[in-house]
Amino acid sequence: MVVKIRLARFGRTNSPFYNIVVAHARTARNSRPLEVIGTYDPIPKKDPYDTTGRLHKDIKLDTTRAKYWIGVGAHPTETVWRLLSMVGILPPKHRPGAPSTTAPKGQANEA
């Protein structure tokens, strides 16, 4: 059976909070997972130790367990793939709507 790394929503209305869980692909979103490997809080908060005043989203993850589950074949969802790439576990995935970093076809570097 296929195992997925995905988000399970908790929290209140308009105040989401997610657990990053490992679960069978065909189970319900909030059913009992095989393992909870982290949490994700998408509501930006100000870091009291940051002097620049930037807001950040809180991601707490057990990296060793995430690497283990990916190593044994668990498939992360698109959102979890993005979170794992932010942490540095997976490479960033190409997104179709993202701007490219290469020059357009007509403008070649002439040296």
From TrEMBL:
Species name: Staphylotrichum longicolle
GO biological processes: mitochondrial translation
The family this protein is said to belong to: Belongs to the bacterial ribosomal protein bS16 family.
The keyword Aminoacyl-tRNA synthetase is assigned to this record: no
Gene3D superfamilies recorded: 3.30.1320.10
Chain segments carrying region Disordered: 92-111
Record-linked InterPro entries: Ribosomal_bS16 (IPR000307), Ribosomal_bS16_CS (IPR020592), Ribosomal_bS16_dom_sf (IPR023803)
One of the record's GO cellular component terms: mitochondrial small ribosomal subunit
Protein encoded by which gene: CYT21
Comp. bias (Polar residues): 99-111
Annotated keywords: Ribonucleoprotein, Ribosomal protein
Example GO molecular function: structural constituent of ribosome
SUPFAM superfamilies recorded: Ribosomal protein S16
Protein name stated in the entry: Ribosomal protein S16, mitochondrial
